[in-house]
C-alpha cells in the first residue's frame, strides 16, 4: 500500500557491493571505491525523504539523490532521468526490473542498492 | 542492428524487449520461487535457480573446452574486481570435496599491484594490499602478489613464445581423466595429501605443491622508490589514456606470464566476463587489432606457447556477476584503475564501453550478439603458410605478425619503406631475392645494413610491432622509460634477423630456443655490407 503522500519515508541508499570480507570491520575499509567515490566516500546513507504531494518513486528518488547526495560528476551516475547504463539497481535485494524500474513506488524502510559494473573486474 | 547469417532467427520482436516481468511472476526455471533477478531478456530467476544456473555455466564452459587437464597447475589472475573474484570463488567451490563433480586442477592466485601506474599513494596501496591478503588467506590457495614495478626486472625471454606440441586430441584428454581417477581411487577416498582437492578451511599445508604462500622467489618486499618513480615516469610520458591502457595491459600480461613460467603454471585463468569481452572485441577493432580478435576474446589464447590463457567467465554477463557476488557474499576489493572517474570520451576503451552499455540497455541482446560473433572467429593461419615455419611475432602483444614487406597495397605495408628511408640511405626494394624466401616476413629485413643497433632504437622497436601496437607507440614520444627487457629483446631480434634471413635458414628464431648469431661465413657475401660498422661479428 502506498503511504499517504504527506508522510515522510525512511530507508537506506547504499552504494557498491555490501559483501564484507570476513575479518575486516566495516570502519577499517578506509579506501573504498566504486560508486561511493561520487558520494563523498560514504557507502550507506540512511535517508529520510520529506513528505510531498507526488508519490515517491525511483525517478523522484534519483532527482533527490542528485540534489542531496551526489557530491561530484553527476553524469557518472545519472543519465537523463535514469541511472547510467551499467549501474544496477536493487530494491530490497531484488532486481528493479522485476519491480517496475523507475516507476516503483517507494515504501517505508526500503533499501535501495546501486552497484556499478563499469570497468574493472 | 546488423545481423549475420541464418543464426539470428530470433524474431524482431525481441527488441525492444517485452516489458519487464513483474514480481508476481514465478521463477521461470522452478516455477515456484520468488524471482530476484532478471537474466537476458525477461528470464526471471529465483535465488536458488540463479545460483545453480551461474555455477553450471562456469562448469560447462570449462567442461566443453576440455583444455585443463587433471592435476594441471592453473594460475588465477585476480584483480580484486567482481569478475575475477567471482571466478576465484567458483574455483574454490568447485574444488571442494562436497561438489558432485569436483574440478581437478591445482590452483594458484596471482595479483598484480598496479597502484604506481594509477597514481595511488603508498598508503592507499598498502591498505588495498592488506585487504587483498586477507581474502587470499581466506581462499587458501598459494598466492603471489607482484608489484607492477617488477617489470623492470623481467628478462627478455618473457617476450618469447615457447612452442608447444600440437594440442592433445580428444582421446588424450579422456585418457588423462581416467588415469587420474584411477590414481585417486588407489590413494583412497580420503583424499590424502596428494589429492589436489581442498575442502574449505583446510590448512594450506595440505597442498601438494610446496609453494610457500609468501612466494620464496621474491620475498614480500615492497618495490623500491626508484622503481615506482620509473613506472610513474613511464605512464606519465604516454600521451593518451588509450595508449596507457594498452601499455598497462601488455606489461600486466608479461608479468603474469613470468610468474606462471617461474612457478610452473601451464594455464592462466582470467576473469573476463561476457560484457567485458564484447566491449574488448569492439575496442580491439577500433585499435587496429582486428587480426587478433580470436586470441584477444576467445576462450583460449595460446600465443605464448607454453602457457595458455583461458577465460572461463566469458559466458557470464557483468550483471550476473554483480548479482551473484551480492547475493552470495563473494568478497572483492575495489582498486581504482587508470580510468576511474575519467569522462566518457577520455579513451577508446571508455567510449566503447559507454556505447555498448547504452546499446545493451535498449537492446538487451547486444552483448550476447557480439559474443556469439566472437565465438565464430577462427584462428586460421594465412593462406598458404600453414606449412611454413612460424612467422615473427609482435614484440609487445606477441601475436603472430600478419604482414608482408612486399605487401605495399595495404596501408600497413606502405608504412614500412617510409620510416626506413628516413633512417638510412636508399636501399634496394624489399623484393630482393633473399626476402622472398619463406622467412622473409620481417619488414625491412636485409636489403642492406640496418642501422638498428647503431642509430635508431626506436625504428628497431617499431618494426617489430603489429599495427595496433605501432599505433599505440605513437603516443609514447620516447622509448627510454620503457622497461629494459623490451628494448633488449628488440635489439636481440633485429640482430638475429639480419643473418638467418639472408641465408634462408629454416630455423625460425621466433619460436623454440633462441638462436645465437650465426657465423659470418654462412652469409652470402653480397648482402653483408662490410662498410657498416654497426653490424656485429
TrEMBL record, chain A:
There is a cross-link at residue 121 (Glycyl lysine isopeptide (Gly-Lys) (interchain with K-? in acceptor proteins)). GO terms for biological process: protein urmylation; tRNA thio-modification; tRNA wobble uridine modification. C-terminal thiocarboxylation occurs in 2 steps, it is first acyl-adenylated (-COAMP) via the hesA/moeB/thiF part of MOCS3, then thiocarboxylated (-COSH) via the rhodanese domain of MOCS3. It comes from the Eukaryota. It is found in: Cytoplasm. The modification 1-thioglycine is found at residue 121. One of its GO terms (cellular component) is cytosol. GO terms for molecular function: sulfur carrier activity. Pathway: tRNA modification; 5-methoxycarbonylmethyl-2-thiouridine-tRNA biosynthesis. Its main location: cytoplasm. It holds the Pfam family Urm1. Keywords: Cytoplasm, Isopeptide bond, tRNA processing, Ubl conjugation pathway. Acts as a sulfur carrier required for 2-thiolation of mcm(5)S(2)U at tRNA wobble positions of cytosolic tRNA(Lys), tRNA(Glu) and tRNA(Gln). Serves as sulfur donor in tRNA 2-thiolation reaction by being thiocarboxylated (-COSH) at its C-terminus by MOCS3. The sulfur is then transferred to tRNA to form 2-thiolation of mcm(5)S(2)U. Also acts as a ubiquitin-like protein (UBL) that is covalently conjugated via an isopeptide bond to lysine residues of target proteins such as MOCS3, ATPBD3, CTU2, USP15 and CAS. PANTHER family: RURM1 PROTEIN (PTHR14986). Belongs to the URM1 family. Component of a complex at least composed of URM1, CTU2/NCS2 and CTU1/ATPBD3. This is Ubiquitin-related modifier 1. It comes from Equus asinus.
UniProtKB/TrEMBL annotation, chain B:
GO terms for biological process: protein urmylation; tRNA wobble position uridine thiolation. The keyword Cytoplasm applies. It is found in: Cytoplasm. Plays a central role in 2-thiolation of mcm(5)S(2)U at tRNA wobble positions of tRNA(Lys), tRNA(Glu) and tRNA(Gln). May act by forming a heterodimer with CTU1/ATPBD3 that ligates sulfur from thiocarboxylated URM1 onto the uridine of tRNAs at wobble position. Residues 518-527 have a biased composition (Low complexity). Pfam families: CTU2 (PF10288). Belongs to the CTU2/NCS2 family. One of its GO terms (molecular function) is sulfurtransferase activity. Residues 505-514 have a biased composition (Gly residues). Pathway: tRNA modification; 5-methoxycarbonylmethyl-2-thiouridine-tRNA biosynthesis. This is Cytoplasmic tRNA 2-thiolation protein 2. Component of a complex at least composed of URM1, CTU2/NCS2 and CTU1/ATPBD3.
Amino acid at each position: 500500500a502506498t503511504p499517504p503522500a504527506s508522510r515522510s519515508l525512511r530507508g537506506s541508499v547504499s552504494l557498491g557491493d555490501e559483501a564484507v570480507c570476513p575479518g575486516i570491520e566495516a570502519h577499517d575499509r578506509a579506501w573504498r571505491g566504486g560508486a561511493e567515490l561520487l558520494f563523498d566516500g560514504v557507502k550507506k546513507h540512511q535517508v529520510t525523504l520529506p513528505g510531498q504531494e507526488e508519490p515517491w518513486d525511483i525517478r523522484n528518488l534519483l532527482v533527490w539523490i542528485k540534489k542531496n547526495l551526489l557530491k561530484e560528476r553527476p553524469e557518472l551516475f545519472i543519465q537523463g532521468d535514469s541511472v547510467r547504463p551499467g549501474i544496477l539497481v536493487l530494491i530490497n535485494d531484488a532486481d528493479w526490473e522485476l519491480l517496475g524500474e523507475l516507476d516503483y513506488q517507494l515504501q517505508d524502510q526500503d533499501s535501495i542498492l546501486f552497484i556499478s559494473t563499469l570497468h574493472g573486474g | 542492428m546488423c545481423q549475420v547469417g541464418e543464426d539470428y532467427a530470433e524474431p524482431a520482436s525481441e527488441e525492444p524487449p517485452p516489458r519487464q516481468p513483474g514480481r508476481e511472476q514465478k521463477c521461470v526455471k522452478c516455477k515456484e520461487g520468488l524471482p530476484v533477478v532478471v537474466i537476458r531478456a525477461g528470464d526471471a530467476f529465483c535465488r536458488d535457480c540463479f545460483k545453480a544456473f551461474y555455477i553450471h555455466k562456469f562448469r560447462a564452459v570449462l567442461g566443453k573446452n576440455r583444455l585443463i587437464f587433471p592435476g594441471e597447475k592453473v594460475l588465477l589472475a585476480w584483480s580484486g574486481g567482481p569478475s575475477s573474484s567471482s571466478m576465484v570463488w567458483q574455483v574454490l567451490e568447485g574444488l571442494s570435496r562436497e561438489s558432485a563433480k569436483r574440478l581437478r586442477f591445482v590452483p594458484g592466485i596471482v595479483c598484480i599491484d598496479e597502484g604506481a601506474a594509477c597514481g595511488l599513494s603508498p598508503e592507499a596501496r598498502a591498505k588495498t594490499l592488506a585487504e587483498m591478503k586477507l581474502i587470499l588467506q581466506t581462499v587458501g590457495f598459494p598466492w603471489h602478489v607482484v608489484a607492477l614495478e617488477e617489470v623492470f626486472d623481467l628478462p627478455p625471454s618473457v617476450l618469447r613464445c615457447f612452442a608447444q606440441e600440437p594440442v592433445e586430441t580428444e582421446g588424450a584428454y579422456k585418457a588423462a581423466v581416467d588415469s587420474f581417477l584411477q590414481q585417486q581411487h588407489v590413494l583412497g577416498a580420503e583424499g590424502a595429501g596428494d589429492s589436489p582437492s581442498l575442502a574449505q578451511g583446510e590448512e594450506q599445508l595440505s597442498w601438494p605443491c610446496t609453494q610457500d604462500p609468501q612466494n620464496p622467489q621474491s620475498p614480500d618486499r615492497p618495490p623500491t622508490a626508484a622503481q615506482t618513480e620509473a613506472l610513474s615516469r613511464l605512464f606519465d610520458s604516454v600521451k593518451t589514456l588509450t595508449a596507457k591502457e594498452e601499455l598497462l595491459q601488455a606489461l600486466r600480461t608479461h608479468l603474469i606470464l613470468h610468474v606462471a613460467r617461474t612457478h610452473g603454471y601451464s594455464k592462466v585463468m582470467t576473469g573476463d566476463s561476457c560484457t567485458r569481452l564484447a566491449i574488448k572485441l569492439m575496442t580491439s577493432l577500433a585499435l587496429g587489432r582486428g587480426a587478433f580478435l580470436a586470441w584477444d576474446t576467445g576462450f583460449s589464447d595460446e600465443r605464448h606457447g607454453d602457457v595458455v590463457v583461458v577465460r572461463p567467465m566469458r559466458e557470464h554477463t557483468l550483471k550476473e556477476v554483480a548479482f551473484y557476488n551480492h547475493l552470495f557474499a563473494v568478497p572483492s576489493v575495489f582498486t581504482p584503475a587508470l580510468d576511474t572517474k575519467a569522462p566518457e570520451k577520455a579513451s577508446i576503451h571508455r567510449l566503447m564501453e559507454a556505447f555498448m552499455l547504452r546499446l545493451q540497455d535498449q537492446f538487451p541482446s547486444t552483448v550476447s550478439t557480439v559474443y556469439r560473433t566472437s565465438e565464430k572467429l577462427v584462428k586460421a593461419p594465412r593462406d598458404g603458410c600453414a606449412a611454413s615455419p612460424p612467422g615473427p611475432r609482435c614484440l609487445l602483444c606477441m601475436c603472430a605478425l600478419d604482414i608482408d614487406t612486399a605487401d605495399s597495397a595495404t596501408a600497413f605495408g606502405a608504412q614500412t619503406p617510409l620510416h626506413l628511408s628516413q633512417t638510412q640511405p636508399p636501399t634496394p626494394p624489399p623484393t630482393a631475392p633473399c626476402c622472398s624466401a619463406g622467412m622473409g616476413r620481417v619488414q625491412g629485413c636485409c636489403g642492406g645494413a640496418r642501422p638498428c643497433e647503431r642509430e635508431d632504437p626506436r625504428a628497431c622497436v617499431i618494426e617489430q610491432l603489429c599495427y595496433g601496437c605501432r599505433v599505440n607507440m605513437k603516443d609514447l614520444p620516447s622509448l627510454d622509460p620503457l622497461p629494459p627487457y623490451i628494448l633488449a629483446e628488440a635489439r636481440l631480434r633485429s640482430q638475429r634477423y639480419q643473418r638467418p634471413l639472408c641465408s634462408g635458414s629454416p630455423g625460425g628464431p621466433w619460436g623454440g630456443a633462441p638462436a645465437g648469431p650465426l657465423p659470418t661465413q654462412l652469409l652470402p657475401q653480397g648482402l653483408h655490407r662490410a662498410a657498416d660498422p654497426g653490424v656485429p661479428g
